[in-house]
Specification:
Chain lengths: 316, 534
């Protein structure tokens, strides 16, 4: 197991390197001049723009820029954001708690609603509960999250006045301000995730519930709860965990639509706006971060398979 | 057992519902802006103005950028030698009085005594000189100071400027304009911040001082207790300024619908840049005052004068003849209140507004356009029309114009890009035939920067250059007005650009926000003298 872990972690290095290199050159291929974006004026003289490019190190040949950037990045220095004029690591670190809060809370809500609903609709197959669950899932997947966000703002903020319309408060300012500002974005974001998880749990459970070992367990006189949780759900869990891993990895990448609607200063908004402004250092570091998250979550999900199903072994 | 499992699952849902309900009950008792634990809400007796802006600031160095919404947040912090009046003409701000020599080569400015910076230091001529030197170097508009030969302090409160060429009243407008404004800061800050976009400290002389900026979240200002105000009557940027708020917080809220919702819920007192489609609905809400802002923005079609089809005057005239301005305006804005037909290149609010050569405007004459195309020998080559995706009004105007040009027989390729790509493409004469931009020019001299051969489109002519030279030297308004008319006529005859619409901006405030000077309906947010009557 430890050897497997080491191999997987070592495999991160070439993956991150390839992504970093690709992103570095792709951002330079796209037309657009960060110097112009920074100065922000159509009348800026070529001399002034050249001066800004020099200040940003963009006047050097692209391969020189790449070597300089890579050597610094390997030491943990991802440069300075062109737009924010702050170290990239600091800018990303400022946004990470927002995205992490949003992701963890929405995942929690997704798991708390999605899994029970999926299990229940599987064991109550073709009943009203199942039909409700199917309706809920189709609705959740069909409704765009940003639109749900607007509806929630209209109902819970403007009409009822229960929650603020937008903004973010750090957890350090207290639990209540923090959760108040996150409830609506979390619900908007998790609706589609709940729907997905409900459907996956339901279909996975339906598949398992028809297996011979479930009939055997029941024939042995085991209680229905034990059959469902220990024998059926445990075996359906591989699919469920895969979906959860996917949702978690996507969530940590940030949700630009939800962050825009609720004015949350998260990573999704940061990376997308950086791409629009040609803030190369942020885009590069952001993509490396996203790659790292995807690889790490995949690894955790893979490892969890062996815990869920002891037949899955990584030693051989 | 199945029932037991059902009960467990029901219990989970029930607990979730209970948690949600408890939270709602708790939160409903915490409406408004008085949440505990937040550092953004102070003692209950504090008066805080909450303003929602549409995007974050690329830098806080106002001298170095014209990017918006920076002027909205920096106007309360910084002041210049001159500011703009209600009629958008330059009026003294930090200046007490000034004089100009007969030959208009030497200007002398006396600044007000006893003005304090936010760091406690008194304003002197040396601060002004360092600030203006920095502005000249880092500002995109600094090129307008090219003919400045020397600037020096005659005494602690007197500044002299010597120019290589005569310069008229336009100098005052350069110093007053609130785009990349020539703001005055302490000498040591100006001298130690040589690079544009990287100001070491945000210290001005305005009625509010800078406190904190959290990127893409908020920017906070607080009242400057030692502010020394002018005593003359309030006049937009200048005159008597009262800081009626303990703090002003500018929130960054990218979605217009969310800004509107926040205004309705009384989270924000003022919200900026709203879609005009919301106007009529907001007009119905008693607690909200929609505000249409002047001056009107000119939407203009730029043609490539350097290369390609539109180097031929007949091609340019074909486009000029084809445009139906009214149709374009209706496509751009949902409400009639937000656009106007006006043939002038100067906005209706400018004293230079004129109908000179207006027969070239809003022709909508298909036959005439086709005739010009025949004269030009147009062979159906597709026109590269660069369209900016990020500005909805410009995007819609481009689509409408594209259709109007197709109707007269011009093939059009609508090339839709994001801002950075659009800017890069339009700077290349091989990749651009036309694009739409917007702006306002209150004074004829201000056109020179865009229409002196440097700006994409690269229009320049000997006749217009001669008019610009005369304008630069002339100080008498009547004579400048005649020159302004001459410039408009030449622009129309040469089809330097095509006026395709005038549209107005839109912001809104809570009715409790009182704006006795009507400052909020002008240009950038001007928050002094604004107050809240809760």
């Amino acid at each position: 197991m430890w050897l497997y872990l080491l191999k997987r972690i070592l495999a991160f290095i070439p993956a991150v390197f390839i992504v970093a290199t690709l992103i570095f050159f792709l951002t330079r291929v796209v037309p657009g001049d960060p110097a112009w974006v920074l100065v922000g004026h159509q009348l800026s003289s070529e001399e002034r723009l050249a001066e800004v490019r020099q200040e940003l190190g963009l006047d050097k040949p692209i391969h020189t820029q790449y070597v300089m950037w890579l050597s610094k990045a390997m030491q943990g220095d991802f440069g300075t954001s062109i737009f924010f004029q702050q170290p990239v690591v600091k800018v990303i670190a400022q946004r990470f708690p927002v995205t992490l809060s949003l992701t963890v809370l929405s995942l929690l809500l997704t798991i708390l609603v999605g899994i029970p609903l999926g299990i229940f609709s599987a064991i109550r197959h073709n009943t009203r509960v199942d039909h409700f669950s199917t309706f809920f899932s189709v609705l959740g997947i069909s409704l765009p999250s940003f639109w749900v966000g607007f509806l929630l703002i209209l109902l819970f903020s403007v009409t009822l006045g229960w929650f603020p319309t937008s903004g973010y408060r750090s957890l350090s300012l207290g639990f209540i301000p923090w959760i108040r500002h996150l409830i609506l974005p979390v619900v908007s974001l998790s609706l589609a995730e709940m729907a997905l998880l409900t459907r996956m749990t339901r279909s996975s459970m339906l598949d398992v519930l028809g297996r011979d070992y479930i009939h055997t367990a029941r024939a042995k006189g085991l209680g229905e709860g034990r059959v469902i949780i220990k024998h059926a759900f445990r075996n359906a869990l591989v699919t469920v965990v895969t979906v959860i891993g996917l949702i978690f990895a996507l969530g940590l990448g940030g949700s630009v639509l939800i962050e825009n609607v609720f004015a949350l200063p998260g990573l999704g908004r940061l990376i997308v706006s950086a791409a629009v402004r040609r803030d190369y250092p942020i885009v590069q570091a952001g993509m490396i971060y996203l790659t790292g998250v995807a690889l790490l979550v995949n690894l955790i999900v893979d490892i969890s398979y062996s815990w869920i199903n002891p037949q899955v072994a990584y030693e051989k | 057992m199945g029932n037991r499992l059902g009960r467990i699952i029901t219990a989970i849902f029930f607990s979730l519902g209970l948690f949600f309900l408890s939270l709602m009950t708790y939160c409903s008792g915490k409406q408004g802006q008085t949440e505990e634990g937040s550092n953004l809400v102070g003692a209950s007796e504090e008066v805080i103005l909450h303003v929602a802006l549409w995007t974050s600031f690329p830098t806080l160095d106002w001298q170095s950028t014209v990017s918006h919404p920076l002027p909205q947040a920096m106007l309360p912090v910084f002041e210049g030698l001159f500011g703009l009046s209600k009629d958008f003409v330059p009026v003294p701000e930090l200046v007490l009085d000034w004089e100009v020599s007969e030959d208009k080569l030497k200007w002398t400015f006396n600044i007000r005594k006893g003005v304090k910076f936010h760091n406690g230091k008194e304003l002197t001529a040396e601060d002004v000189i360092s600030s203006l030197k920095r502005w000249r170097r880092v500002s995109p508009r600094g090129v307008m100071f090219n003919h400045l030969r020397e600037i020096f302090a005659e005494d602690k409160y007197t500044i002299r400027m010597f120019f290589d060429q005569p310069i008229g009243r336009f100098l005052l407008l350069i110093l007053a304009a609130d785009e990349s404004k020539a703001v005055i800061m302490p000498q040591e800050i100006a001298d130690s911040s040589p690079l544009g976009g990287a100001l070491n400290e945000i210290v001005g002389t305005g009625p509010y001082r800078f406190e904190e900026y959290r990127t893409e979240q908020y920017l906070e200002l607080s009242r400057f207790e030692d502010y020394v105000s002018r005593s003359d009557p309030p006049d937009y940027h200048s005159g008597r300024k009262e800081a009626n708020f303990d703090r002003i917080i500018f929130w960054i809220v990218p979605e217009a619908s969310t800004r509107v919702a926040g205004l309705e819920r009384d989270e924000y007192d003022i919200v900026t840049r709203l879609p005009d489609a919301d106007y009529k609905r907001l007009l119905q809400i008693e607690e909200i005052d929609p505000i249409i802002t002047v001056p009107a923005l000119l939407d203009y079609l730029i043609l490539n004068h350097r290369k390609g089809l539109f180097t031929d005057i007949n091609m340019r005239r074909a486009v000029q003849s084809a445009i139906d301005v009214e149709e374009v305006s209706r496509c751009m804005m949902a409400s009639k209140e937000f656009w106007t037909l006006n043939p002038s290149i100067y906005p209706p609010e400018s004293p230079y507004n004129t109908d000179e050569a207006s027969h070239y405007y809003h022709q909508n004459d298909v036959a005439k356009a086709k005739d010009f195309l025949r004269k030009a020998g147009y062979d159906g080559e597709a026109v590269k029309f660069l369209v900016l995706r990020d500005e909805p009004e410009i995007y819609r105007a481009s689509i409408a114009i594209g259709e109007q040009l197709k109707a007269v027989g011009i093939e059009v390729d609508l090339l839709i890009y994001d801002l950075a790509t659009w800017v890069a493409k339009r700077a290349n004469p091989d990749e651009m035939d036309m694009f739409i931009s917007k702006g306002y020019w209150l004074d004829p001299s201000l056109f020179h920067a865009e229409f002196g051969g440097r700006f994409p489109g690269w229009f320049i002519s000997a006749e217009t250059e001669a008019v610009f030279d005369k304008l630069a030297m002339e100080t008498d308004f009547e004579k400048r007005f005649v020159l302004g008319k001459e410039l408009q006529r030449l622009f129309y005859e040469k089809v330097a650009f095509i006026n395709v619409s005038y549209h107005y901006g839109f912001k809104a405030k809570r009715s409790s926000v009182k704006d006795p000077e009507n400052n909020l309906s002008r240009g950038n947010l001007t928050l002094h003298n604004v107050r809240i009557d809760r």
